[in-house]
Structure formats: structure tokens, C-alpha cells
Design a protein that fits this description.
The protein has 482 residues and is α/β, with parallel strands linked by helices. The protein has 21 helices and 16 strands. The chain has a seven-stranded parallel beta sheet with strand order 3-4-2-5-6-1-7, with helices on both faces. Strand 12, helix 14 and strand 13 form a beta-alpha-beta unit. Helix 2 packs parallel to helix 3. It is globular.
Length: 482
């Protein structure tokens, strides 16, 4: 479909109304849809609940050919694909948990060009079976969408090294496509500070990307930090807070699977009907917990950061961070799941005081682990062949894939395609202290939202800003004391 500039927005809007039933786009949805339909690279930072998925689904559905949607979590993919399939739209997903018969059916649909949207993880995209099919010259690929793109910056170095190979996907695919073919790349996220945004642009090798960024401030979301001095006090304050929420829906975020299970067990002993959710659970168990929470059979879930991305529940009235997250962007991502319906909601963080060094110890462990991984990568770099394949390296060295990813992050390595690398430098760029922003946020004497606006690059909006609701603002402090 070819549209002139004059008619494109009205045609896109008409299709938007027909499929989704909304009367018009919310700013800046219309501009984003036009940019992606024109196959231009883009970085889109919209707050949680800002309608990001429609921005890439609509242009993909209006074109012949395929758009790849790279997504970090099975639950996130399943929710979006289920909604599209219920509308009888040509979308599918591929992941390792699919039954063989269903996987075969999706691969057949891919080969026969019956899909407009294909959701898959970075690892599945780069698997041999899928990659070979994507490289078929007759398969038209219009674009690659990176959903929840902050995961590239947070997980790409150590947890999900396949993320750092995505920047070589476009050029490798175009080698197999007819002359003049174009593949656009767009990265979507709710949380990207300037540093994360630069990482996304560099790793994905974006070409003059259009940037869309909305101020993350939400006037209905009240931020509170409460200091607790002992583990016992932490649990007492959590109970007190939950009791005040009556039966309103919420989430409790913890930082590890062990903490998740222990806290959920303790809350059940206090007669609360809850469950724990983390990435170590089986797919069926995760789906059951999600559905129980979405249908309000569970008031709240104790969870790790594996829970929440892309799950659409508008009436979440509260979020508790039982321990402070390591990263400020992680905090914003998680607390942003409250109050998506525009009604008042609260995000409470329980931070360790001077008698309880739990947060400090956890941060030190996290930073030491990061330093250790970088040191291991540098040691391994001296033993690795200067050029080779990720498959050979992972066979020979247990942590080979992570080492290659870390070398890429310190700009010592480039990927000639998603499978072949070249090491060209022995001088690493020093990794930044990624936890410092979160530490500063907890300690700030200024308005919580003002701090977040500054940290995420909205300095002009932050000038003289006061939310009037957090415990650092006068009004919020008086209200809490009253």
C-alpha cells in the first residue's frame, strides 16, 4: 500500500478506528505510526500504558510483508498475539515452550508469507531454523521492532547476550533480499534515560532515528520512600501498608526468587491469599497466577521483575518495592504499572536504614558480580580467536557468549553478522556504575518526581517542579503526617 503524505494519516486513522474502535490517536501515536509506516528508524519512549503496541501493530498490518517483533518474555508475547488473533489478524509467536505441532504450523505460515507480525525472543530469532527461513529471498521483511527495549541495555551484557547481536540482523538479512529492499528498526520502551537510549541506538546500529519521548510524570501516581531499620520492621511496615489498601489490587516486587517464595509464604501465614511469581516457574504456573491476579482472585502477587511487562491491568492501586531495585529505570518500569486507569495510586519503596544494611549489601554484591564478569571477559579475550563464531566460542568456553557480549559492550568487539565476531581492541571502555542513580534517588531531599524528570533527560520540565504528593514535597509530607 502506497500513501501520499496528505492522505496517509487519515487512512491510518480510519484503519485504526476499524480494528481497535478508538476515535483517534493519542499524541504522539499518530506521528509514530506515520514514521514506522514510512519505514524510518525510531526510538520511542512512552510511559507504561501509553499505547505503544498499537504504534507498531497498525503499520505492520497495513503493509504486505512481515514485521518481526522481538520481545523479552513469553507472557508479553502471548498477551499481545492473543489479542491480535481474537481480532482475526495475521499474527503469531515462536518460543521454546511451543508444542512441536504448533511450532510447525507457525513456521509453515512464515514460509508461505501468511503473517504480518511474528513475535519472538532474540534467542529464537537467531536460532538456525528460524534464521534460515528469514533469509529466504522471497520473504519480504519490512521491519524489526524491539519491544521493551530497555531489556537490551539491562540484560544484553550478561543475562541475555543474544540482545547484543541484534544490531547485525538488518545488514545480514538484506544481503539475501532483492536490491532496494528496506528493513526499518524501531525500539519501544517505557524507561530509557539518556545513557540507555544511547546504548540502544549504538547496539541496534540505528540510522538517523526519529526520537519520540514523553515526559514520564503521572500526576495520579504518588511516590513514597519509607526507611526501615530492621528486617522485622520491613515486614511490619509492609503489613501495615497492605491493610490500608483494603481489597485494592497491587504488586509486591522483590529482587530474587528466594525472597519471592519466602515473602509469599509468610504473607499466606498472615491469612493473605497471594502467590509468588518468578522466571523459575513453569509456563502453566505463570499463566495461572497471571489470570488469577487479572481476574482479582488474587489481590496481589509477590514477584520478581519477570512479572508485569505487557500485562494489561488498569486498576492496580499500589506497588510496593520490598527492597529497592538496583536500577532507576527498573524502578520506573515497575512502579509505572500502578494507576494506568488515571485514578490515584501509590508506589511505596521500603529502603534500608543505617541499622539494616540489606540494600547496601545487595548493591555491593551486584556491583562485585558485574566487575567479576568484566574481569573474566578480559581474561577470556586473551584466549579467544580474534575472529570466529559464537557457536565455536560457546562450545569451547562455558561463559563464552557472555564474554563476547561484554567485549561488545566495552567496544572491543564488533559483529560482522549475528553469528560472526571480530575482536579489534584490547583496551576496554570502563563500565559505568549503573546503581548510583537509584542510590541518589533514595537519598534526594528534593521532589521525587523532579529527580526522575532530571534523571531521564527532561531537565527543562524539572526546573522548579514539585509534585505536591511525595514525602519530600511540603503538601505530601503534611498529608502523611495528618
Amino acid at each position: 500500500m502506497t500513501l501520499s503524505n496528505q492522505s496517509s494519516l487519515s487512512t491510518l486513522r480510519a484503519t485504526f478506528q476499524k480494528i481497535w474502535g478508538y476515535s483517534d490517536f493519542r499524541p504522539p501515536q499518530g506521528e509514530i505510526v506515520q514514521t514506522l509506516f514510512a519505514q524510518k528508524d525510531a526510538v520511542i519512549v512512552l510511559p507504561t500504558g501509553g499505547g505503544k503496541s498499537i504504534c507498531f501493530q497498525l503499520p505492520a498490518l497495513m503493509r504486505s510483508g512481515l514485521t518481526l517483533v522481538v520481545s523479552p518474555l513469553v507472557a508479553l508475547m502471548e498477551n499481545q498475539v492473543q489479542e491480535l488473533q481474537q481480532r482475526r489478524l495475521p499474527a503469531a509467536l515462536l518460543h521454546g515452550e511451543l508444542p512441536p505441532q504448533q511450532r510447525k504450523k507457525v513456521l509453515w505460515a512464515l514460509e508461505n508469507q501468511q503473517l504480518r507480525l511474528l513475535y519472538l525472543s532474540p534467542e529464537t530469532l537467531l536460532s538456525q531454523a528460524v534464521w534460515q527461513r528469514l533469509c529466504q529471498p522471497e520473504l519480504q521483511i519490512n521491519g524489526m521492532i524491539l519491544d521493551e527495549a530497555h531489556c537490551l541495555a539491562h540484560w544484553g551484557e550478561t543475562f541475555r547476550p543474544a540482545y547484543y547481536r541484534l544490531g547485525a540482523v538488518r545488514s545480514a538479512l538484506l544481503q539475501h533480499k532483492p536490491a532496494g529492499s528496506r528493513i526499518a528498526i524501531a525500539a519501544f520502551t517505557a524507561t530509557a534515560d539518556p545513557q540507555v537510549q544511547q546504548t540502544i541506538e549504538r547496539i541496534l546500529q540505528l540510522e538517523a532515528p526519529q526520537i519520540f519521548r514523553l515526559n514520564p510524570y503521572r500526576e495520579n501516581l504518588k511516590l513514597r520512600i519509607q526507611t526501615v531499620n530492621t528486617p522485622r520492621q520491613r515486614r511490619q511496615q509492609l503489613l501495615k501498608f497492605i491493610q490500608h489498601q483494603q481489597r485494592e489490587s497491587g504488586l509486591i516486587y522483590v529482587r530474587s526468587r528466594r525472597e519471592c517464595e519466602e515473602l509469599a509464604d509468610w504473607l499466606r501465614q498472615q491469612q493473605y491469599q497471594t502467590d509468588c511469581y518468578h522466571a523459575g516457574l513453569g509456563a502453566d504456573d505463570r499463566r495461572k497466577i497471571e489470570q488469577a491476579w487479572l481476574s482479582d482472585r488474587l489481590q496481589f502477587v509477590v514477584c520478581t521483575n519477570a512479572f508485569g511487562m505487557g500485562i494489561n491491568k488498569s486498576n492496580v492501586r499500589w506497588i510496593v518495592h520490598y527492597h529497592a531495585p538496583f536500577l532507576l529505570s527498573e524502578y520506573v518500569q515497575e512502579m509505572g504499572r500502578a494507576g494506568r486507569d488515571g485514578k490515584l495510586a501509590t508506589a511505596l519503596t521500603l529502603a534500608s536504614g543505617w541499622l539494616d544494611q540489606a540494600d547496601k549489601q545487595r548493591w555491593e554484591f551486584f556491583e562485585q558480580q558485574t566487575r567479576s564478569q568484566h574481569q573474566t571477559a578480559q581474561q577470556l579475550a586473551r584466549r579467544l580467536p580474534k575472529q570466529g563464531t559464537v557457536e565455536e566460542v560457546t562450545k569451547q568456553f562455558k561463559e563464552g557468549a557472555i564474554a563476547l557480549s561484554l567485549l561488545h559492550s566495552t567496544q572491543q568487539l564488533t559483529w560482522t553478522d549475528p553469528f560472526h565476531y571480530v575482536i579489534h581492541s584490547t583496551r576496554p571502555h570502563a563500565p559505568l556504575n549503573s546503581t548510583q542513580s537509584m542510590r541518589d534517588f533514595l537519598k534526594t531531599r528534593h521532589c521525587r518526581w523532579q529527580f526522575l524528570l532530571q534523571a531521564f533527560g527532561f531537565e527543562k520540565d524539572a526546573e522548579g517542579f514539585r509534585c505536591g504528593q511525595c514525602e519530600r514535597c511540603g503538601e505530601g509530607r503534611r498529608r502523611d503526617e495528618g
